[in-house]
Amino acid sequence: MDKIWTYGEVSLTLDMADAATVERYEDAFDQLAKEAAALPKDGRASARIRAYCAMYRRLFDRLFGEGTADVLFQDIPDNTDRYDEVYGAFLQFITAQTAAITKQKEERAAQIRRFLPDRSRKKK
Questions:
Q1: Average pLDDT score over residue span 71-81
Q2: pTM of the predicted model, to two decimals?
Q3: CA distances from 88 to 85, 112, 117, 118 (A)
Q4: What number is the average pLDDT over the span 91-119?
């Protein structure tokens, strides 16, 4: 299971089997939801685009540490399509990692069940 997400020249480690990491992930996405709800819906389009992009920059800084967004988005202008592309790639990475974790847990559970006594048979 891959714990390293690479986008362009940037490689970042995220382990969704680690409780502290998952807690940071949950907190970051809770904050993202609040910020998304508060995004401006009127006014200048350029300001709305900048606010949208800034929201994702903060997400990646919360997940990976302050300054991560500066490196990750260094050659990317404030462009909603480009930021959505980065975010989509990250979500694909998370989806693949969590699916691999789930599969691994299911395989371990099946191994454990093979060695448990069969309780369906009654003793005589």
A1: 97
A2: 0.85
A3: 5, 36, 46, 46
A4: 87
Six-digit token pair at 24? 């940071």
Residue 32 contacts residue 55 (beta carbons within 8 Å) = yes
Residue 119, φ and ψ in degrees, nearest 5? -90, 0
pLDDT at 121: 59
What is the secondary structure of 47-61 as a DSSP string? HHHHHHHHHHHHHHH
In one letter, which amino acid is 8? G
Single-letter code of the amino acid located at 18: D
Cβ atoms of 39 and 48 within 8 Å: the answer is: yes
Give me 62's structure tokens: 């919360």
Q: Compute and round to an integer the Cα radius of gyration of the chain.
A: 20
Place of tokens 């990976």: 64
DSSP code for 77 = -
